[in-house]
Amino acid sequence: MSALRLSSFSDSTLRDAGFALVTLALFGAVTLAFPGFASPRNLAGLLDDTAILIVLALGQMLVILGRGIDLSIAANLALCGMLAALFNRAWPDAGVAPVFALTLVSGGLLGAFNGLLVWKLRLPPIVVTLGTMSIYRGAIYLLSKGAWVNENEMSRDFLAFPRHEFLGISVLAWLSIAVAAVFVVALRRSRLARDLYAAGGNPEAANYSGIDPLRMQFIAYTICGALAGACGYLWVARFAVAYTDIALGFELSVIAACLIGGVAISGGAGTAVGVILGCLFLGIIRSSLPLVGISAFWQMLINGVVILAAVLLSARQRDFKRAILEVRT
Amino acid sequence: MKPASLMRWESMLAAVLLLEFVMFSTLSPYFLSVDTLSDATFNFTERAIVALPLALLIIAGEIDISVAAIIALASVAMGLASAHGFGTTGIAGVGIAAGLLAGCINGALVTLGRVPSIVATIGTMTLFRGAAYAVLGDRVLKDYPDSFAAFGQGYLAGPVSIELALFILFAIFFGVFLHRTRWGRAIFAIGANPVASRFAGVAVNRYRFALFALTGTFSGLAAVLLTSRLGSTRPSIAQGWELEIISMVILGGVSVWGGRGSILGVVLAALVFGLVTFGLGLMNIPGIVMSIFTGLLLILVVAIPAWVNRR
Amino acid sequence: MQHSLLTLTDIRKSFGGVRALERASLELPSGAVTALIGENGAGKSTLVKILSGIYQPDGGEILFDGKAVRIANPLAARALGIGVVHQECLVFDNLSVAENLFVNSQPVRGRLVDWRAMNAKATAVLRDLDADFDAGLPAGHLSIAQKHVVQIARALTHESRVLIFDEPTASLSQHECTELFRIVRKLRDAGCALLFISHKFDEIFALADRYAVFRDGVSVSDGRVSDVTCDELISLMVGRPINQLFPKLETTPGDELLRVESLCSAGEFENISFTLRSGEIVGLYGLVGAGRTELAQVLFGLRSASAGTIKLAGATGLALVPEDRQSQGAVLPFSVAANIALPNLRSLAPRGWTSTAREARLARQWIDKLGIKARGPEQPVHDLSGGNQQKVVIAKWLARNPGVLILDEPTKGIDVGAKAAVHAVTGEFARAGGAVLMISSDLPEILGMSDRVLVMRRGRLRGEFARLQANSENLLRAASEA
User: Fold this and answer.
1) Is there a contact between A19 and A261 (Cβ–Cβ < 8 Å)?
2) What are the chain C neighbours of B194 within 8 Å (beta carbons)?
3) pLDDT reading at C387 higher than 90
4) Which one of A1, A136, A265, C415 is most buried, by most CB atoms within 10 A?
5) Which positions in chain A touch C75 (Cβ < 8 Å)?
6) Residue to test with chain C: of A8, A184, A208, most C Cβ within 10 A
7) Nearest CA in chain B to C301
8) Pairs of CB atoms within 8 A across A/C
């Protein structure tokens, strides 16, 4: 009985609760200053703005849980977004389902390529994804010959699907809610996810338990890639344009959301709830910037501050006296 | 520390370099002229100047992916300094000081903050580049004094540009420092086993801090050269350069796991790299395609030895 | 004695031409503890990895319950009922205890992990083992000893009938060892076949029913523990009798070289005062966690003291040979010469310029002096055996010509021959006028080598014994809780 009590109030649960309070406080402060901020209309917009970030951050979280990192996630999104736009231009009447299938599969393959290099050749994730980041970006240019695909070249269904409203919230937002719900349950209760936590927490011990930690990374990269691919379509449809540089640098927002959401960069620790809160936190900041009269050009600086604050705080929490001599990886 | 395998790697780079020469000189009759070759050096000297200290940093088992963002930050700082009426020397001083400061921030995060360098510099990359955007937005700074152009466009003697002269000077300096002094030896030891180095009395964190500060300073210097050559500053300046600079270092045979590498290798890699860029430029291939090549090269260089070892 | 539950016959395994196991055979009867003994490099850990399904043997036969089996991977080992308690304590700090027991085998309801069932099952297993911690606790909060219990519990949740303990007591206190032995005996009485790998002969005689000895990958002997003596086991292990394990050199203590007064380090130790005199070897005994390593690191300057003074006589240098040879002592990929040069770079390169020739000369000098078995100064240290690696680590500090030498567990995990060599070097150093502080958990070593013995418990000095007064009883009593 005490066992159950302890596990339900584990360290990460406490952290999530604390961070939820911080996010609420931020939300409260913005609302106090600008009462319109809490209007249902604005909240739906906020959710719509944050939806893609949530899906990407949950994907990235899997990779970081397994001790990797995916810098190519935004390039993957952009490449799959371009694929979706070109596919739609060629077959405007094919509907949305094949577009989703196409982006999921191509994104998954791009992610799997990262994963294979990490798994089979044991290459450092940072080097691999730094490389694929620019390969994928370059591939968009080759694919589109440097041209833009504009709104007038996209079919109505293609553009309308994520913008449909259902119960006052866009389909895009509903999709992210669905993905978030699946992640919350799956990370806690699927065996695959629990094995991923084990592999990231102690790869050697995982190996002795019959889990190949690098294979788990491969799976994480593949899922992350597939989600990024699907987000490529959503992004292109939402902003009604596809070109080489869409979502340039967005991987940094994604990583910022994960880190502030409590995902440990050393692997094995972090919750879906924390990451979702991290995305909402960044989303609230971003949508309140214009209200306080700060230009959108400040967003990147804020991401930087958030990343550094998050990693510095988590470094504080680590055991101080041992770390002086610890081997860093 | 020069195991036989490293020497083989360097001979291979030299062979590739030779091959490039032969290829380009058959492709273009103008290639083998002094002027063309002199022009070609501008394709890599700025990046290579950052690659030198970064090689030391990677050998010491750390990494800095904020180098390009430091260049942008330093360039913005110089633009502002120029707008405030600083002279040429003052502007260059501001650029280098900005680089030093940024490098010290990285060093402090890694040593005092005990943040792994990958995350720390992902964070500062965002921060520095973000600061450049926050200050400039979509503006362009281009009011530099005429004499400022000398750094990136001037020649020291004949076809030897100031940039090339600086690169040669620093290559020799870093080569001797890394391979012939006890400080260089300590850098290798830290990369191979930081704990044992600490137990052997090496002030590991002091080295780490100094190397980050050094890399920052040289990024600042690269910003001076680049800004001077372009004559303008945008927040997107040197976008993606971190990839190319890291690729140069890795292509030069520096181990991504730390503890192994040589300056000769990095210099050869910089030349190989510069010639490829130049060659692709001759063939009118746009920069974004060049980045595919760079990405592939980076992965291949680490993948091939791993693939061979796997057997 | 029952029939053999797990039988290994003529197991062979080599790595890139280096033979780790050659005709290794082993029988594990159920209801008995079999001790596996051998020097480092005898092939014990390779055998454990084969039984865990990490390595595949190149040849030989494994019979489980009379049937030939192949242990293709760790899951196959688990399915057979082979559980391993690893020396390195392979526990997931980020997961709860319950989840640790069920990694890769979580109970599911439908397709979802059933946390309630998992916690209940874990609690039941822990209760069987009389564990003093909760299944819901994050494993990172446990002590090393408790983590060992988690590993045992993990094996039990998979209904293991064969349990392998790979040097489980290496980092346990006396009390924790007693607790572990209780569990081992309980498992034996329940009919499990147990393999107990240990370097400590007192444990083997206290716990094991049978023994098996490996030497250079070959099984050289096995039988009942009651039929052999300790000396016989040692000579089986090394292949020659060891007459004099501790060649204590007689010395007369001279001038005081180190004086430590009321030294404190917050949270680690407090009020430590002692002196070291020239020619003296002072043993520092205590259980793991008593604060000995921390004291050594403060003396060496790796950590700062919160109060107290450390006085070194005149220009006396102080050197520390750390506890963990591979991660703290040596830079493994570096050559012998580069390792020996590392702490001596200031004198080898006074103006900063290094000289390979000077370094090689210094290295050759120490290779001769300590009898380091290496092809030459250029050989990388990771190619050397554990004992020779340790000699390199000692050499690099002796080359600085220190007055005071602190040795932290200098012979942990090295074989008997290398141990004797390390002891000889230490004795020579003291006779030449140096002072030695030797931290060790090995009682015979402490008693055999020391002129004086200091005992630490929970961060305080709890006793000081002259050579003639010290014996295992009074040292143990001072080191353990009253």
Assistant:
1) yes
2) none
3) no
4) A136
5) 210
6) A208
7) B201
8) 105
Q: Which of A11, A207, A208 lies at the smallest CB-CB distance from C138?
A: A11
Contacts of B303 in chain A (CB under 8 A): 117, 121, 123
- Three-state secondary structure call for residue B232: coil
pLDDT band at C166 (very low <50, low <70, confident <90, very high): confident
Angle among Cα C163, C164, C165 to the nearest 5 degrees reads 120
Query: How many C-beta neighbours within 10 Å does residue B46 have?
Result: 27
CB contact under 8 A, B180 and C354: yes
C1 touches chain A (CB under 8 A): no
Name the 3-class secondary structure at A26.
helix
- B256's CB contacts (< 8 A; 6+ apart) are A123, A124, A127, B58, B250, B302
Count of C-beta atoms within a 10 Å radius of residue A135: 21
Place of tokens 């090496």: B202
Three-state DSSP state, A10: coil
DSSP A327: P
**Lookup result for tokens 């526990």:** C91
Q: What is the ipTM of this complex?
A: 0.85
- Across-strand partners of C108? C113
pLDDT tens-digit readout, C178-203: 888 888 998 899 889 999 988 777 78
CB-side exposure of C253: number of CA atoms within 13 Å? Answer: 16
pLDDT in tens, C201-252: 778 888 999 999 988 788 888 889 889 888 788 778 776 554 445 666 777 7
| C152 or A317: which leads in pLDDT | C152
Query: A249 to chain B: nearest residue by CA?
Result: B126
Residue A201 has its nearest CB partner, among C54, C92, C116, at C92
- Spatial contact of C464 and C274, defined as CB atoms under 8 Å apart: yes
Rounded to whole angstroms, the Cα distance separating B304 from B308 reads: 6
- Does A207 touch chain C if contact means CB atoms closer than 8 Å? yes
